[in-house]
Write a structure and sequence with these properties.
By secondary structure, the protein is an alpha/beta fold. The chain contains six helices and eight strands. It has a six-stranded mixed β-sheet with strand order 4-3-2-5-6-7, sandwiched between helices. Strands 1-8 form a two-stranded parallel sheet. The longest helix has 17 residues. The chain is elongated and about 55 Å long.
């Protein structure tokens, strides 16, 4: 049985305002990171924007993977790429888009501390109450599936893969996605593309 999913679709402008507010919060507690680390892939865009807002060009990445489908996780996240710069003795801000299960963010923080970081703080745009890890900074709390502007196609693919053998179910789920704010023309374009893919 496929779990019932509710969607939240923030716009680019809404995300920028959330990040602006987050940068102000980070500055207000006087945390000045030496390095900002974006968690691949979802944390790259927020990390880049925070790099600009905090006027800190020292940007790095790390990759942790957990999701295998719409609302489905591996059970245990995996670190698939270590932090890309030397963080020994540095203050590090780890940025991701959401603390959902929280496992990936906790794993990344532990990894960066193991690499000798002096201090590690974590920041996300969204936090979900079921998360096992609470970020130091987050802007919104939700239980919905968040569809960021940079992962619309990926989300439509997950919906398509989950519902492709039931046309009525696929239509219902894509209508919910459109109702939440994803342009219908984009959804139709991606569903058509996935339908025409060869095996």
């Amino acid at each position: 049985m496929v779990p019932e999913v509710e969607y939240e679709v923030p716009t680019w402008n809404q995300i920028y305002i959330l990040l602006l507010e987050q940068a102000e919060r980070i500055c207000s507690v006087v945390f000045k990171p030496d390095v900002i680390v974006g968690v691949s892939r979802g944390g790259w865009v927020p990390a880049r924007v925070l790099s600009d807002l905090l006027e800190n060009p020292n940007l790095a990445n790390v990759k942790a993977e957990n999701y295998i489908g719409l609302g489905k996780t591996r059970g245990k996240p995996a670190l698939t790429q270590g932090v890309s710069v030397d963080v020994a003795g540095k203050r590090v801000l780890v940025v991701d888009e959401v603390a959902d299960s929280g496992g990936s963010l906790r794993l990344v923080k532990e990894h960066i501390l193991e690499q000798g970081a002096l201090e590690v703080k974590t920041a996300t745009l969204y936090y979900k109450p079921q998360s096992v890890f609470k970020p130091d900074y987050y802007q919104k709390e939700t239980t919905r599936w968040i569809v960021f502007p940079w992962d619309v196609k990926e989300t439509v693919r997950k919906i398509f893969e989950t519902h492709k053998h039931d046309a009525a179910s696929l239509k219902k789920e894509t209508a919910k996605l459109a109702g939440a704010g994803v342009p219908k023309r984009l959804i139709e374009r991606f569903v058509k593309e996935f339908s025409e893919e060869s095996c």
